[in-house]
Amino acid sequence: MRKRFKHSLIILGIAILVSFSYRFLGLKYLFLGLVGLSGLPADNLMIKELDDETVRPITIGFLVGRGVEAVPLLIRALQDENPDRRQGAAVAIGRMALLAQGDSLQMLRDQAIPALRDAVRDEDKRVRVQAALAIWRVNRDAKEAVPTLVALLQVHDTRVFYHAADALGRIGPQAKDAVPVLIAHLDDENTNIRVWSGNALKEIDPKAASDLGIH
């Protein structure tokens, strides 16, 4: 009886913790929603939320929704001591570029590209990947981004490899210089590396992928 009671207490404790976690997460989403929809200037509170991977996507979404007025803030975040914030800022600038046109796009080119060029030399390889992808999205030209991403395919870190291969796949045919490296990784001992290489290759050079039996 005592053992069953103890077991029940443990289950109850876990349930309370889970419930509290979800309520706390819900409060964070509510807070970010109010800040994002209020029209208030995006500030350091939003940047700090890039630390939390559970709310990072919605934080990035709200920052992107602010448009070019958030660019100075994101540029400062690219120089933050926290790598999660630097990475999140690069992601936000890249996604903003997908929506930008005319003067807004030119503003991104004038203001964000210098900071992104610094970020592709960041000590954190995840930041390098996202900065390189953002440069391509802002400039609509792959010549700066691809060499960085190809170099990151050589890093012995599966997370970095995944993001670099994914970025190259998104760039598509403009990333043709990555084809030999991706083909070389089709024989990698790691199944995920082989799959990610094949997926990127299909987007960059469908004929080469087909010739190698990748469909």
Please tag this protein with its features:
single chain, 2 domains, 0% strand, Leucine-rich Repeat Variant, globular, 215 residues, disordered N terminus, mainly alpha
Give the SSE map.
Layout: H1 2-38, H2 44-48, H3 56-65, H4 71-77, H5 83-99, H6 102-119, H7 125-139, H8 145-152, H9 158-171, H10 179-184, H11 191-204, H12 206-211
Apparent shape: globular
Task: Count helical runs.
Answer: 12
- DSSP strand tally: 0
Domain module count: 2
CATH topology of the largest domain, what is it called?
A: Leucine-rich Repeat Variant
Please name the fourth-level CATH homologous superfamily of the largest domain.
Answer: Leucine-rich Repeat Variant
Instruction: Report the β-strand fraction as a percent range.
Output: under 5%
Structural class: mainly alpha
Mean pLDDT across the residues is: 83
- Reading the helices and strands in chain order gives HHHHHHHHHHHH
Reading off the top of the CATH hierarchy, the class of the largest domain is best stated as Mainly Alpha
Please report the distance between the alpha carbons of the first and last residues. Answer: 59 Å
- Main beta sheet strand tally, sense and closure: none
- Using only C-alpha atoms, the radius of gyration works out to 21 Å
Give the name of the CATH architecture of the largest domain. Alpha Horseshoe
Low-confidence stretches: 3-26, 37-42
Into which percent range does the helicity of residues fall? over 70%
